[in-house]
Amino acid sequence: MFLLLRLRRPVSAMPWRMGWRGMRLACIAAALLVLGLVWWLAWQSVKAERAQQQISTAQQQASLAAVVAENLAQVVNKGQLMALAAGDALAGHARGQQADIHRRLSTMLVAEHSFARYVLLDAALQPVDSSYALSASESAPLMASLRMSLQVPEQGHARLLPAARSAASGHPDLWQIPLVYALRPLESEASPRAGAAGGYLLLMLDLGYFLNLYRDVEMGAGSAIHLLDAQGGALAELGPQGLTMPFSREPVAPVARMTGNRGAIVAALQPGGPVSHFSWRRSASSPFLVVASRGLEWVHGPQREDSRKVWTLLGVLSFCMLLAVGGMLRVLRHQEGLFTALSVANRDKHMLIDQLEQEKAKALELAANDHLTGLHNRRMFNELVASHLALARRSRKFYALMYLDLDRFKAINDTLGHHVGDLLLQAVAQRLRQLLRSSDIIARMGGDEFAVLVTGMDAMTDMDALAAKLVDCLSQPYEGLEGHSLQVSPSIGVAFFPRDGHDVTLLCRNADAAMYASKRAGRGRFTYYDATAGADSARSYALERQLPRAVADQQLVLHFQPKVRLHDCRIMGFEALVRWQHPEYGLIYPGEFIASAETTGAIRALGDWVLQACCRQVAAWRALGLEPVPIAFNVSPVQLRDSAFAERLAAHIAQHGIEAADLSMEITESCLLEPRELALSVLEQVRAMGVSIGLDDFGTGFSSLSQIKDLPIDTLKLDRSFVNDIRSSSEAGVIVTSVITLAHNLKMRVVAEGVELMDQLVYLKTAGCDEAQGYFLSRPVGAKAAQELLRAAYLYPA
Ligand code: C2E
Ligand code: CA
Ligand code: CA
Question: Are 91 and 104 in contact (CB under 8 A)?
């Protein structure tokens, strides 16, 4: 049940809303989001690190530029000092103190290694003193550039000479940059020109030396110090390759942007060249621009390696993640497949359960209702009546169970067809419904048989009116049954509760018996159950009803009674006598059911069964190698009214592969009544086949020997009433003797039946009787015992 409930819960829909597709999309989106986030974070951190590195590089470069610029300013200042001293000395010179100038300036020059040499010039640019004399090739361009430079008077300040390095390359003086200081005017001059200098000190600044001081400074890979003149012309550079000095003072590309005293930019040194970071520094007292640079590729070089690792790692991670997502999608797809399959299976199961439930409901309805009339069926009727009777016990009302059967319904069915029969049954059911109250229980018990439990009557006599009304109404013609108008009468039997039975079974049986009484009394009427009719009638009625089924169900058995030849006690034949092994009553003898079987017609099927059983028995004995004796079977007049009887008999004989002589047939005189011709012709046919015929119970009927002499009869069976009377009545003895004699005359054999005593046997033998049959010799016995008798072949009276 639990399982059923579980299954009934709809599972075809997904337990969540998003669905499989949504889930896959969400999975992909989540993976992409995570990946994007990771990459973005990595990128941010790399960017931050780059920025950080740039900042620290900028700081480093700025301080480097500051230090170099400061040092350079100090050198320039020292030059200034020398210029002051030179001014003094020049004044002294004017006073004739030549040697002193040289000494003082040389001392100062030695103190500052950055200055390689000096040249002191008077206001007319005539050399006054020098650390060593300028060569002619040196002096000419120098003087030219000096003159050019001096066109802009700028007293006291050091200035760079532009054409300092037009000298031949490779000369160590290349590293020397001429710095010129204007000396103050000499006091001796009466009216010096405004702005005119007293002289000039030319100091050769050894940039090689100066920059070499920084050679060992840890600047970082890719770093360089550039010394530029105020116009941005390149003077010297200390870079990774060491010291370099350009021939011309070409301004470096980004210098235009290097305004102000300090600053930093990122730019390419040469247009289209690698980008570097530049920090610059200028000081007011120095004519130099100091620039510290570092190539960005060096700035970011180490980080780039790290970044590459990070990107590689991220790439691998992303690949793995995509693989994982791919795997997950596959798993999801697989799950979806399973889920779909499960849903389908569940839906099928669901449908199956529904179908089963529908079928169960249908089956229950079918089990409770008669499909043709819609009335209750037997099973339901029994259940309902049982529960009503339980209530009826405590009630003061009267209850009656009514059995109702349509007279000659079978004929209607046979002649007009089942369909008309069915319509008639429906019409009858309809009338029953109209005539009875809704509290009454109506059922069709099968065939044309209906049953009704009439409930809650105030008096038993109420039943009279009801039953009469039923008989009357149901007997009215039924119109429109496929164009037929039919009239049937009901036979009704009524049993009262609790008088005629305490339970449904007994009430049914008694109502049925009463109905049967109605039929016997002439049909189209109702009868109350009469308990005084006794159990016999109920039993015989039951037997009569059950016989057809018993034949089909093989409840019949044959017993065999031997016929013994009197002169030598040899067994000449057996008479087959039918018995009914009844499941309820035990072994029943034919006296109890043959007569009614003849009335109902069941005798035909019964007789046929007997015929076959006889054939089978003979065949069995033959198969055992026994020499069979004829088995005589009894036939009823009803059987002989069938013109195909002989034909069927022949068929059975042929079917079992036996001889006609293995059988004989016993008829009674009543067989020879109307239609006599038909009976005679059947007898002739049977006899012609080779089956001998005996006339049974001779002496009890109407015939005399003269009447039977022309009949196709081989044997006379003397009725046992004669045999019984042989000794007590001499008249009977005479009759027996004369019958035997006359029969012999007519070439008939005589068999005496019902021999119970030795005396009878002796008398019969003496009288010339051919064979005897009776309890004295043997009772009818089962097939096995009969087989032993046959094997013995002789049967001597005990
Ligand atoms: P039936 O043909 O006259 O059969 C002889 C009956 O007498 C048998 O009774 C048998 O058991 C009985 N009987 C035999 N010896 C003695 C004896 O010494 N004393 C007395 N009192 N009775 C003896 P059963 O078997 O009850 O048969 C009764 C009748 O039923 C038969 O009379 C026969 O008419 C009829 N019958 C039996 N079997 C069949 C059958 O297969 N078909 C037909 N149509 N009728 C049968
Ligand atoms: Ca018989
Ligand atoms: Ca008999």
Answer: no
Nearest CA, atom 22, ligand 1: 754
What is the whole-number distance in angstroms between the Cα of residue 795 and the centre of ligand 2?
A: 20
Distance CA 477, CA 399 (A): 30
- The CB-based long-range contact list for 531-534 (8 Å cut-off, 24+ gap) reads 531/500
Closest CA to 397 of 465, 456, 439: 456
Q: Which pTM value belongs to this model?
A: 0.44
Ligand 1 center from residue 578 Cα (angstroms): 8
Ligand 2 centre to CA of 703 (Å) is 17
> From the CA of 773, which ligand is nearest?
1
Q: Give alpha helix (H) positions in 553-675.
A: 594-600, 602-623, 637-640, 645-656
For 137-154, b where at least 16 C-beta lie within 10 A, e where not — what string? ebeebbbebbeebbeeee
From the number of C-beta atoms within 10 Å of its C-beta (0-12, 13-18, 19+), residue 475 rates as middle
| 197-to-97, 154, 159 alpha-carbon distances in Å | 20, 9, 13
Classify residue 763 by burial, with Cβ atoms within 10 Å: 0-12, 13-18, 19+: buried
Q: Residue 244 corresponds to which tokens in the numbers above?
A: 């370099």
Nearest alpha carbon to residue 526 among 476, 467, 474: 467
CA of 380 to the centre of ligand 3 (A): 48
The mean pLDDT value of the chain amounts to 85
Q: Ligand 1 mean position to 563 CA, how many Å?
A: 13
pLDDT given for residue 269 in this prediction: 75
DSSP annotation of 795? -
Domains and CATH numbers, the chain: 1-187+194-361 (no CATH), 369-529 (3.30.70.270), 555-791 (3.20.20.450)
Centroid of ligand 1 to alpha carbon of 706 (angstroms): 26
Atom 20 of ligand 1: nearest residue by CA position: 754
589 lines ligand 1 (CB under 6 A): yes
Check residue 15 and give its pLDDT.
54
From 559, 561, 577, the mutation candidate for ligand 1 (largest count of ligand atoms within 8 A of CB) is 577
Q: Ligand 1: does its nearest atom lie under 6 Å from the Cβ of 610?
A: yes
H or E element in which residue 586 lies: strand 586-588
Q: The tokens of 85 are what?
A: 């001293």
Q: What is the pLDDT of residue 730?
A: 73
Q: Is 578 in the pocket of ligand 1 (CB under 6 A)?
A: yes
The rounded radius of gyration (Å) of the Cα atoms in the chain is: 74
Q: What is the C-alpha separation between 32 and 431, in angstroms, rounded?
A: 82
Length reported for the chain:
798
Instruction: State residue 8's pLDDT score.
Output: 41
Phi, psi for residue 730 in degrees, rounded to 5: -65, -25
> What whole-number distance in Å separates Cα of residue 478 and Cα of residue 504?
32
Give the span between the Cα atoms of 394 and 293, in whole angstroms.
124
- Burial group, residue 21, by CB count within 10 angstroms (0-12, 13-18, 19+): exposed
Ligand 1, atom 45, lies closest to the CA of 634
Q: Give the model confidence (pLDDT) of 560-614 as tens digits.
A: 999 999 999 999 999 999 999 999 889 999 988 998 888 888 999 999 999 999 9
Please check whether residue 533 is in contact with residue 549, taking contact to mean a CB–CB distance below 8 angstroms.
no
Residues of the chain with confidence (pLDDT) below 50: 1-13, 164-172
Note the helical H segments in 499-601: 504-520, 534-552, 594-600
- pLDDT the model gives residue 222: 81
pLDDT at residue number 2: 36
- Could you tell me the two tokens for 543? 């037997």
Distance (Å, whole) CA 59 – CA 220:
13
pLDDT of residue 656: 95
Cβ proximity of 452 and 440 under 8 Å: yes
- DSSP label at 641? T
| Cβ-proximal residues to 577 (8 Å cutoff; 6+ apart), any chain | 558, 559, 560, 561, 590, 634, 780
> What pLDDT is attached to residue 762?
92
